[in-house]
Records
---
Amino acid sequence: MPKELFVDPQVMRKADRLRVPEIPVHAYATPLAEERQRYGDKTLIRVLRDMMMVREFETMLASFKAQGAYAGIEFVYKGPAHLSIGQEGAAVGSALALKPDDHIFGSHRSHGEFIAKGLSAIAGLEPAALAAIMEGHQGGAMLRSVEKILGGDNETEVAETFLLLGLLAEIFMRASGFNGGMGGSMHAFFLPFGAYPNNAIVGGSAGIATGAAMRKRLGGDGGITVAYSGDGSTGCGPVWEAMNFSSMAQLKGLWPEEHRGGLPVLFCFNNNFYAMGGQTIGETAGWDRLSRIGAGINPDAMHAETVDGTNPLAVADAVARKRALLVEGAGPALLDVECYRATGHSTSDANAYRSRDEIKAWTAHDPIALYAASLKEAGILDDTVEAALAEGVAARVRMVTAAAVDPAIAAPVDIRANPTLIGELMFSNTAIALPPEPVGTFNDPASTSRVRQLAKKARHGIDENGGLHSPMRAVTIRDALFETLLHHFTHDESLIGYGEECREWGGAFGVYRGLSDILPYDRLFNAPISEAAIVATAIGYAMEGGRAVVELMYTDFIGRAGDEIFNQMAKWQSMSAGMLKLPVVLRCSIGSKYGAQHSQDWSGLVAHIPGLKVVYPSTPYDAKGLLASALAGNDPVIFFESQRLYDATEMFHEGGVPEDYYQVPIGVPDVKREGTDVTILTLGPSLYAAVGAAETLAAEHGVSAEIIDARSLVPFDYETVLKSVRKTGRILLVSEASERGSFLMTLAADIGRYAHGDLTAPPQVLGSPNWIVPGAEMESTYFPQAQDIIDIVCCELIPEKNTDYRGLRGWDGLDLSRRGI
Amino acid sequence: MDVPIVMPQLGVDIEEAQIDEWLKAEGDAVEEGEQVVIVTTPKVTLELEAPASGVLKSIAIPADEIAKVGTTLGIIETE
Ligand SMILES: Cc1ncc(C[n+]2csc(CCOP(=O)(O)OP(=O)(O)O)c2C)c(N)n1
Ligand SMILES: [Mg+2]
């Protein structure tokens, strides 16, 4: 898209041959003597101890699942246990090469990576920093417990016990767990040790780690991110999207010098050759060697390598080399770390898909046994030390387990005492305050024609003679959104924006037009057609401390980012017991005229998922103020915009759209027209149909309608509506979403409950039919029109008006009446 | 001969557009097909090309002004 990039037909049409770099497979051959020089014997022994720790920890979980007891401690553990027994070399090896401020994002099978990263961070952090970290977690409560059960004050021992107890309490979903008991086995994290959220969705971490890497690059925090996932995740589209996103050419070519470079993210595939029962090698994948997929992403083949995950030092060596490349800006990188899962996928796995012979063959390649033998052979370790290590590890895990099942130390989450506890974790309802003066580096907005044009526009849509201004001459919703975006971009340096066609094109519908003249590439850029990666990277960017506003061209493309919106964006604040904040605003336009796959109002779909604030303004005043609240707030917001309303000018707010920055609170409906006989509650463009209907109702039927624009779906404050219904006794709810299962149905049911005594008729809902949105010419038969509103008011709500249906509606009652019901 | 540069029809429901920038000044030589003026509708920015080769004799609608579809924006004088 940028004009300086010339697509030269002479070059493009020339015959050529692509050369793919060689991809090393098990190339590691460093003699142990050299590794002794590199790490020192103490660290080499710690590697063994850490692998033993991971194994003992998971053996404990396996024992609880199988026998309900471990080392004499009885406990019923009902949650999941995806164990990595057999894969410890991969986890501990990679953690050895990582620094405390490198951030890992794991999978469902990440206890090992979590423990290994924590132990590595503890070894790398200064005692004072460690103490501050532990003191900072839950007001030091966990630290006090650890000090009590340990009875000693060896800092490393305290910190390691703290790590294991925090994780186990979380796996048991105890209030003192690292996520306050809201995450559990597959979602644990502890940010100060660089252990970022693990993900129960296969491949879910790839995009999030990529966004976090982008923040590391832009925020200047240093370090890299690691996306751990299994071989099975190479079948997931979002993983490919993330790898492509992290290698976008613009990162190395178009971004400002100080932030140039491929993203510092390592895609680390712990390849145990199986998904659950599906076998990637020989059955469900075609790559033969997983590392080959790097060749499909960029000319560096992502510096891909296949590494022997059985040997922790081979893994550490590879991760250290990739880390150096990433820090230099040569990212992303990919490692195929081959390892073998000795136990089942989960404890319910009957191993029906693999032979006993195979399992037995791999027991001779156990990472712990092999590594211990190599240390002994080199004279670094003897049987006595080995036995002492094993004993120490067993004692530690036993002590931690006893503490984790003790309610006095790790109390269960007490929902009965606090029934709304989880509800209160859904949103932080906090916001940042913008500085009064602009901050950051950008071109003078006044130098752009968009801003000059805006300065000349009328702020109200109605001219002096009562006529309508053209959208060229008055502020539209498109302009109102632009004004807020410009303000936030110029007053909040942590904010970045991207989506498909966001720069020169101006965003899919011109909202951003002019912004690319103002903002550099690293604040506003064109993303690939990767809806999943667009949303996931925004989440990772926010987890790492940034703020993002991203765009999906059409709401109908939400399906392509389904997991990212429904499971990631919606859930991480609460799954972290509020420790994570996700200031992400996802702008989605709701289409029209392009038929069934480009025109559906899906606002109710996202409103259904707990954890998302959902907004759908329909006037410029509201659009400007609500977007400001969304961008300033720290909660994730889905911000819907109607394509049919981008050119709408302000008709309701006195004085029109203020030039200055202001906020409209999310969740509060607004009375757009006062009336006494019937309340019409609208969502989206139906506001304008309702205004037309209200005029006819007044002129021809003597009915005074009060119109309320819902403006937001989540949260939704009923007060304004209930007050209105108390006055009118009747309510009709109108939106363009298909009626079945729609958000209006929920509102109508709630209003029926809350206002039962005030209603003289049941609430009526008018939506679109439960069939596809037809083409442009037929749209008026589909979206509710003014006449449809009049019909319902005069036939259903005020039957004494005694009129007949004149519009096309009544189809839902039609079938019942045909059948005589 | 005078050849007008006319604001084209930019879409069925577009009645007017804004002049963003003249890429040529009065008196400048222009080639047919060369971009002379940038205009903006509510949604998009477009570059209009010179309809003929010659000299940009006059600019009728300066930058930042709004012009209706069909309006003459400027005149090119050919030999
Ligand atoms: C999107 C998604 N699909 C399916 C699952 C169910 N599931 C959980 S783990 C798993 C296998 C994953 O295999 P792999 O990525 O190789 O990781 P491994 O379990 O071998 O560590 C499956 C299918 C899921 N959690 N998420
Ligand atoms: Mg696997």
---
Amino acid sequence: MNFEAVKAIYRFEMARTWRTLLQSIVSPVVSTSLYFVVFGAAIGSRITEVEGVSYGTFIVPGLVMLSVLTQSITNASFGIYFPKFIGTIYEILSAPVSYFEIVLGYVGAAATKSIILGLIILATAGLFVPLHIQHPVWMLLFLVLTSVTFSLFGFIIGIWADGFEKLQMIPMLIITPLTFLGGSFYSIGMLPQSWQTVALFNPVVYLISGFRWSFYEIADVSLSVSMGMTLSFLVICMTVVWWIFKSGYRLKS
Amino acid sequence: MSPIISVSGLSKTYASGFTALKSINLGIKPGEIFALLGPNGAGKTTLINIICGIANASSGEVLVDGHDIRRDYRTTRSLIGLVPQELHTDAFETVWATVSFSRGLFGKPKNPAHIEKVLKDLSLWDKKDSKIVTLSGGMKRRVMIAKALSHEPQILFLDEPTAGVDVELRKAMWDVVRTLRASGVTIILTTHYIEEAEEMADRVGVINRGEIILVEEKAALMQKLGQKRLKLHLQGKIDAVPTPLAAYNLELAGDGTELIYTYDTRSEHTGITSLLSDLRAAGIRFSDLDTTQSSLEEIFVSLVRA
Ligand SMILES: Nc1ncnc2c1ncn2[C@@H]1O[C@H](COP(=O)(O)OP(=O)(O)OP(=O)(O)O)[C@@H](O)[C@H]1O
Ligand SMILES: [Mg+2]
């Protein structure tokens, strides 16, 4: 194992994070605050409570997930796409590093950033509504697993993308809608029966449900199903990454 | 001495269907400076990229220090430093950060003293805290060299190191290369410029359209270079070289109106004086004479055109 290399990639990526701290942190915090103002205040004045918790409090886990998902994908996809784009990937490819180590460095850094961001957003939310987390360990577990899984997903997109449009397309066209429809701002139980069935095909539902359970013990699906699905996504992403490297897909001519 | 790099039957066909390398065989000796010469698109970069792990070979085998580049990629890649043809840099990193990054990437523990030495050797020390984006092209190229040297490689690939580099920097670069060689590093460089190969290399390989068409000691090439041709334009026409002149290996040309004598400029006796007196004795008169030297450039061009 070339730990020095993993460290080098990880540090390099984290340095990029600190350099772009403003965009990385300020914009999600601002948009989260806006969600609170718009959804929490405007809608919350009509829907006062969902399953025993105030509406503002209810939407916190969903908001955190929304940011964590998009940021994981954006960070990880940029992290690997950029060296491809400017050509510095040559050095990674010519270095004595295994693919596993490359993924560990890039995905590790992207996931770290997402986790930090998730916690910052949580703290921001704490300024607007009273928070209490019943199962902090589960909460962290869901946060870490989701960050890692979607950083892996972002890594895949970064390798697949051959232009900046593609890079932005997936988060815009897939992740944001899935998160909005995945119960960030409502409980699936509030939907008509037929839509509830449709919603179960949305993977984000399971992530949010499990995450929300760790806060308030309210969930759309059982904890074991949430965890099972989360782990399945992780395994799927790992398999795809493994295949990419095995086949040299879009990295080596 | 067993070669430090041994390429056998190496072929490369790109996804586009274009065959860039056709069954290349090549051995690089430890500690030598090998110049790979060839026109644009000959396959120089492709060959280097395969050896370094940036591109996959279609078939064939490459051993570096006896290790297969696929199976033992960790070993082979840690031995190699690469300065690519294009300037690929992280614009917003500092020189120090990017060079230290390379060292870590190649699995070497931190060694600020070594990085300092490399930067000083390349006259980059005063730029160590500058962002790469603020450097000139020549400085960026030196940063690329510093990155390649950061992990103390045994083999250094320089893919057109002097493209876009001024005379002074070129000289400085050759000094670095010579020092490296003196410390036992094997150096493979590609170039379009024959003078460069002539000045630096121990051996020269010529590649064209994906095939190695010549590999020779530079000295042997210089031998060919040392040959000069003396052409005598005769006043009259002769049918054959007269027997008393047989020892000179003269060639008859221009339908019997020209005699050509080939000699070595570096030998003590060129034989010209005696040839001229023997010609007079044989009664052959000439109206004019000229000499030509075949340059490596000519040899190269004739090889590549063939
Ligand atoms: N990724 C690629 N896909 C398809 N063809 C390629 C690719 N890379 C290089 N080639 C082709 O392979 C041939 C050899 O290219 P290569 O870059 O190895 O040449 P070179 O000898 O380094 O040339 P130069 O002196 O211009 O740098 C060229 O015809 C080039 O067009
Ligand atoms: Mg080239």
